[in-house]
Amino acid sequence: MTTELEDGPILTADDKPLSVALRKALFRQKMRALMLIAPLLLFVLITFVWPIIGMLFRSVDNSVVPETLPKTVAAMESWSPTGPTDTPPEAVYAAFAADMQVAADERTHTVVGGRLNYETPGIASKFRQLGREVKGWDLENDGPFKEKLIAEDEAWGELFIWETIKTYSGGYTTGYYASSVDRRLTSEGVVARDADEAIYLRLFWRTILMSLIITCMCALLGYPIAWMLSNTLDRYANLLLILVLLPFWTSLLVRTSAWKVLLQEQGVINSTLESIGIIDSPLPLMYNQFGTIVAMTHILLPFMILPMYSVMKTIPPSYLRAAKSLGANDITAFRRVYFPQSVPGIGAGAILTFILSIGYYITPEIVGGSTGIFISNRIAYNISSTLNWGLAAALGGMLLIMVMVLYWIYDRVVGIDNVKLG
Amino acid sequence: MVTETSMTDSSAYVAFDGVQKSYDGKTLVVKDLNLKIEKGEFVTMLGPSGSGKTTCLMMLAGFETATHGQILLDGVSINNIPPHKRGIGMVFQNYALFPHMTVGENLSFPLEVRGMDKSTRQDKVQRALDMVRMGEFGSRRPAQLSGGQQQRIAVARALVFDAELVLMDEPLGALDKQLREEMQYEIKRIHENLGVTVVYVTHDQSEALTMSDRIAVFDDGRIQQLAGPSELYEKPETSFVAQFIGENNKFTGRVEELVGDVAHVSVGDTTIKALAVNCGGKGDLSQLSIRPERVTIGELGDNVVDAKVCELIYLGDHIRCRLDVLGNDEFVVKVPNASNQKVPEVGGETSISWSTQDCRALDHAEVAA
Ligand SMILES: Nc1ncnc2c1ncn2[C@@H]1O[C@H](COP(=O)(O)OP(=O)(O)OP(=O)(O)O)[C@@H](O)[C@H]1O
Ligand SMILES: [Mg+2]
Question: Is the ipTM of this complex over 0.90?
Answer without folding.
Answer: no
